[in-house]
Amino acid sequence: MSVAPVGSPRAPLTRRRLCRTAAAVLALLLAVALSLAVGNRAIAPREVLDALFHGGDTEAAQIVLFLRLPRTLVGLLVGAALALAGTAMQGLTRNPIADPGVLGISQGASAAVVLAIAFAGVHSLSGYVGVAFVGAALAAVFVYAVAARGRGGATPVKLALAGAAINALLVAVTMAVLTTRAAALDEFRFWQVGSLTGRDAAVALRIWPFLMVGAVLVIAVARGLDALALGEDVAKGLGQKVATVRIVGGLGAALLTGAGVAAAGPVAFVGLAAPHLARALVGSDHRWVLPTAALIGPVMVLVADTVGRILYPPSEVPAGVLTALIGVPFLVTLVRRKAVAA
Amino acid sequence: MTTTGDRTASRLTARGLTLAYEDRTVVDGLDLDVPHGAVTVVVGPNACGKSTLLRALGRLLKPRRGAVLLDGTDLARLPTKEIARSVGLLPQTPVAPEAITVADLVARGRQPHQHWWRQWSAADERAVTEAMARTDVTDLADRPVDELSGGQRQRVWIALALAQETDLLLLDEPTTYLDIAHQVEVLDLVRQLNHERGRTVVAVLHDLNQAARYADHLVAMKAGRIVAQGPPAETVTAALVRDVFGLGSVVVPDPVTGSPLVVPGRPWQSPADG
Amino acid sequence: MTTTAAAPAPIRPAGYALLRAGPAAFLIHRRAALVAALLTLVLAAGCVGYLSLGEHVVAPGEVIQVVRGRPSPDGLVVGALRLPRLCVGLLAGAAFGVAGALLQTVARNPLASPDIIGITQGASACTVAALTFGIGSYAVLPYLSVAGGLLAAALVYVFAWRGGLHATRFVLIGIGFAVALRSVTQLFLTKGDYLVAQKAQVWMVGSLNGRGWAEAVPLAWALLVLVPCVLWAARAQRTVSMDDDTATALGVRLGRTRLGLATLGVLLAALATGATGPVDFVALLAPQIARRLTRTAQIPLLCSALLGACVVVLGDLPARMLFAPTELPVGVLTAAIGAPYLIHLLVRGHSGRRRAAGGSA
Questions:
Q1: Tens digits of per-residue pLDDT, C296-351?
Q2: Facing residue for B59 by CB, picked from C5, C239, C248
Q3: Chain A residues whose beta carbon lies within 8 Å of the beta carbon of residue C347
Q4: Taking burial as the number of CB atoms within 10 A of a residue's CB, which of B76, B188, C267, C289 is the most buried?
């Protein structure tokens, strides 16, 4: 790694960061355990471990292995994907409230999938991922282009509003398809609000390569994001290729969002909250923020999913509903702090 | 030529005025009598509380303690519309509604004199016409305010305050955004109003020399307190400038008006130049 | 304009006609009056079209017979089905239009309309909650949606307040609450049984489908009560369109006036939402278009109301007919028109330029 900044005691800082990252790992393990053990039918931790390591034919083992384990894996991947995407977007737009949900990018992926199902006969999961990626990328480019035009460039308000507008438009499109094709209502409902209900292992298997590529792209520009935080001009002055950072990072973020949405639908606000929690834990260095956010995102998704399972049994509250409820206080706090300039 | 104090008693006074934003006290226990029928200029370094004081005089800011009195009555006890018929105010950064025309904006200055059943009167028409003529914006009447230059816009806002036809006029840095010719024009207008109509004016100005030129009564503030006040010729001294602004200077008579002119000390030089 | 230095020509606010009656004198914006007249014509034509078109086409002459209360073979289709639905659309549209105009004026921001800052979402959440708890009576629901709207507005206000009300902060927090309240609605949907969910689902987008006199009559009464307030607002609105300092200097009781205007706006939006569900973007769209048509310095209330009614009524007609016999919720159509318009506003740069509404310390 590079030279430590002058005057900052490096060793204690690193130790603190390591400690806190370890805490995040612990929280993640706890969330995974809960997700495996809690549900319509509670299963004791010992039985869970038994099932994981020795398999077995008991009902509990079957539930853990074939229902909850795949679901938990998908939750892990989706949470990490959205958190990384959110971190990258916040860095790229230099905007603390950027998030795939707020900016309408998740909805873009979602609407693309709905349209593909309705009019192009796409029914395979890899088809979904590809279409979702294209939808996310288009929405991202469009929202940013809209917000960046006019006076003052892409301010938080303009980004949020462009996102809200795109969101509304895409929801209208989705609704129109839904209402006119009532027969397919159930297949579509999932694409309105993100949820982990009924996701199987195949989903996890299909999306992880996309996720990996996206993660590598985003992590590759971590230093660039650090420089961008000081402003575009300063970043240029520091010798960063700003355009390259934007394109590579943006591609990575769109890929991650597309993969996340294809797997679980638009799960809101994970990409907003996780990066801020991560920054609170490990500071603003993106080489630390990105991995930490990737730990915290899954915690949010898994906890939301687990809570959703036990709230109104036997029906399940979609994870996306609960993450939105958890995420909004974050947005409010952020906006109330002076972090968001007009 | 600068005579103060011998006019009638003050209509606008501040007593034990303490002003604060949230938990930061800006002005503490200040007393001030605004001389009637004179031009009072408040000067001081950045963040000394001079604009805050002006906002309080115009009831834009509620005092934490103490009061601003208009003809002996606490402003807080007077209906705001009644105050608006006596005290006019030009804020530092006024914002016009989008796409409003100049005549329309200046006519808004008549609001305190109007009722829902009498939205326009001959007096309104006369006041607006005159205010626009005085500020030389008559030719702009039908132009949208958005399209004007900074200087034109400032004159339109002054016209609005004039159309209000108040005896007291409070101006918060009326010369910002203006080039030097327009600055002089605005300040001349202020003096003219004062002279011809006997209007009392309180202005906050950034430029000490302009203050010394145009004020009858100069108020120098520092850290929320009044350090000195009186006719500029008696108040502005090298010692005051050092005390208030922390700047070494020489004060000489203005070659045109004879008022005090502050010339800052020698600029920084390389030690090699000797 | 030709002026001589000695006696300048008298100046009057441009574009206004002066109506005198004894000591009273009113300023009427000429262009606004013209636009209002034209909009009324369009709306009247739209209403006749609305009543006559559909799966069963009724001749306009016959429609007028029915409306005048004459017996007619088409009495059922026009009088019992389309007419109440039209009334709900007209009233709700007008209410949305005025609500948007008032809130946009108070926030001095075209984006602060009730459907963006969470007020209609609050009203929806409350209504859907009531539906899932088995309260389905139209005598109670309007009050609940008003309560929901007011509560949402109060929440946004409280959280956006920080030693002053900053327009940007207000809008951002409003957007946040809109998302949260939509989630709350989803939450209740999950809780409720399938039939309730189905009913609420359609209601969530804003639709006139199946609306009858049961919704129209209470809405009409409520709006009638608010008419005097709207008249007050039309005048008060003019005074708050200036920045805070100038308005105060001109003798406006800013706090009270603003609170009054905002409360009225929230009430209207929530009432309309209670009857039709959140018909997105009408409240954003109508005032902005009205203002561009009239070119007034403040948003014209009457024209906003007329335009709101036009948008909802003329939007519901294709929504009814496009995919017949399936009906599209009118909210889908208004969103499809309104979202691009919002984007257009953003691109034109109308958001960032208005200065903060709060004091800068």
A1: 888 899 999 999 999 999 989 888 888 777 778 888 888 888 888 878 877 775 44
A2: C248
A3: 146, 149-150
A4: C267
